[in-house]
Input
Amino acid sequence: MAQQPLPLCKSHPAPYLEGRTGDATLPQPPTTITDELGIALSNLADSATGVFTPTLRLGVTGLSRAGKTIFITALVHNLLTQGRLPGFAPLADGRFIGAKLAEYPDATIPRFAYEQHLAALTANPPTWPESTRRISQLRIVLKYQSAKWWSGMTGPATLNLDIVDYPGEWLLDLPLLGLSFAEWSAEALERARQPGHADEAADFLRELDGTDISKEANDPDAERLAQAFTTYLRRSREHGALSTLPPGRFLLPGDLEGSPALTFAPLPPPPGPNRNSSLYSMLEHRYEAYKDRIVRPFFRDHFARLDRQVVLVDTLRALNTGPAAVSDLETALSAVLACFRQGEANPLLRPFSRRIDRILFAATKADHVHHTSHDRLETILNRLVASAAKRARFAGAETRSIALAGIRATSEGTIRENGETLPTLIGTPLAGEVLDGQAYDGKTEIALFPGDLPERPDSLFEDGNPVALNFLRFAPPQRLERNAAGDSVLPHIRLDRALDYLIGDWMA
Ligand code: GDP
Output
């Protein structure tokens, strides 16, 4: 059978995929029939192992520092200790029997370091754990009584919940599967040369200008260019850009740190006929290898096998940074979400292919604003993901937006100022945090008026309309309550509702 290209990121913005005709440099189909078959077989294998116990694969993603580690740690801890989850139907109905961690069936994937993360959060003093830097997984087995009428005859039911934590940056790589080296280079260099990026890109462009790309391939030149390109990507990000440009592994290499697979950079077309032994050819080769050995397997082995997905978004940080960061976040989210694979499987293989049927968008760290602003935070998130959510719904997936805090680090109070009563947050700003010229030492608890979120989300995209938020990063909660069994109780905001949306119907 002829290899048919199957659209992977069909809806990715035009500059990437449309209007390009076959370039001489190794055109690559986004996914191939072989990939589809691989995915179908993996799913069959999953179904076989899940004959007696259904398995729900929940993907947790979001850009760096969006709150993935905290969300998963809090979710697992609350399930294991049967924490305060009034909005999680199986627990609220008294049908939840218990949960325990189990060995993950795939020993080749790192395990999510739940115990270490919990130890950091419950230490004295508590600290925030290390963030997600690569893919990891965890299996939690949930025992419950079904609410169905026949459940009395069948006894308690069991569900394996497999949580897959992966950097959202890696999803930004998926459009690369449809781009040749020449096409990707043209996109990347065009962006680097825009006046708005002059500061960040100057060193990289200088390195590039000083390099003869037609000369004999050599590793030191490749490393120098890759290094300069990575520094440019990092600076881009530090200059308020919350999004990341592909290749996603350059900033979050996971286990590939220092690997030659990451030693390439975008290059202009060679001035004359290109030789196989040139520096240009070497980097082109490495780009193709990156796609084939890193991006494609990630999609096929992990991403395509998810049932449900939660996309965490640090909306407040973008609002606090300004309109450019908000637009940037919107663009990054659109790129990330364009890759969700709803409804795009080959019809012949569809019976075996899983599709994500529910996506939850969550604005994290909602404890940085007063609860009276939570509705507005959800409205803003809705606006940010509107086009992506529409596409997902069109393809048959349900979506919802929610404002939550995996771990609530503040409590609420009021202060009176100039005869006015203002809602405040009470918490301990992290050491080194500065607001209005005052630096905090990490030990002093304060009451802070966080400011109001705008009523009209569109105003966030307008210049000269900054959101007046008083934004400080807080230390994790210092004094944790304990439940009757002596376990620490981690406070949260709406984690129970998120959980109910993501897995509640599987435990009905
Ligand atoms: P990721 O794993 O890279 O997505 O991010 P993390 O989960 O490690 O979160 C990054 C940082 O954001 C943490 O170290 C905390 O400082 C902060 N954070 C994450 N979730 C919450 C939350 O629910 N409340 C508060 N106050 N801070 C949070």
User: Anything to note?
Assistant: The radius of gyration is 24 Å. Residues 14 and 395 are 19 Å apart (CA to CA).
